[in-house]
Amino acid sequence: MLPDDMELQTPQTKVWPLIPQDVYQTEITNIEYKTEPNRYKQKETDPDEVQKMSFEFTIIEEGPHYGRKVWQKMAPIKPYPPQGNGKPTWVYRLASAMEGHSITKDEADHYGSSNINGYIHQQVRVTIKHSAPNAQGKQYSNVDSFLPIKVKLPIFDINKVPKENQPAAKAEMDVRDIPF
């Protein structure tokens, strides 16, 4: 039981300013596999959940945005080229940028999770665009497209991240302060 006089701390939140719309060189610093509710479910036979890969891109260009992150979710599918008037998938766009050329059907046939895992700590240029304001007026910095890198930059260094680009400090509690 907690003591009656224990002061509870207020959680720290940080408001992140928009990253200006531009092209930034990034490092893929994390890839997570997750399931999430199917927000496009229309029929009873549609799945309740869908599988997603969430890619974390960290800006590694020197300057005021060093260390800022953007994320892009993608369906875990092979990067087949678009057919007809079809739109290229996110995986196709990323794989093409990472390989430096448009992925062919033959390359996509042989593409697997090891290819995706091989992208961790690799670099890619990301075009960032701003979303339209939502109902609350909030806008987001979104990934719009991917481009191959021109020159490899030094790997991401957490010690070079400006203070304003670091997450809010987490409240720390000493375990000894909890009465057991």
Enumerate how many helices there are, as a single number.
3
The topology string of helices and strands comes to EEEHHHEE
The total strand number stands at 5
The percent range for strand residues is 25-35%
> What distance lies between the first and last C-alpha atoms, to the nearest angstrom?
8 Å
How are the strands ordered across the major sheet? 3-2-1-4-5
Outline type: globular
**Main β sheet profile:** 5 strands, antiparallel
Task: Look at the helices and sheets and give the structural class.
Answer: alpha+beta
Uncertain spans: 170-180
- Radius of gyration, Cα only, in angstroms? 20 Å
Task: Determine the fraction of residues in helical runs and give it as a percent range.
Answer: 10-25%
- The overall average pLDDT, rounded, is 89
Reconstruct the topology from this structure.
Layout (H helix, E strand, L loop, with lengths): L21 E16 L11 E11 L9 E6 L15 H10 L5 H5 L3 H5 L5 E8 L10 E7 L33
What features would you highlight for this structure?
single chain; 180 residues; alpha+beta; 11% helix
Report what the structure shows.
With about 180 residues, the chain is an alpha+beta fold. It has a domain at about 20-35 and about 45-150. The protein has three helices and five strands, in the order βββαααββ. It has helices spanning about 90-100, 105-110, 115, and strands at about 20-35, 50-60, 70-75, 125-130, 140-145. The chain has a five-stranded antiparallel β-sheet. The longest helix has 10 residues, at about 90-100. The protein is globular, with a radius of gyration of 20 Å. It starts with about 20 loop residues before the first strand and ends in a 33-residue tail after the last strand. Mean pLDDT is about 90; it is low at about 170-180.
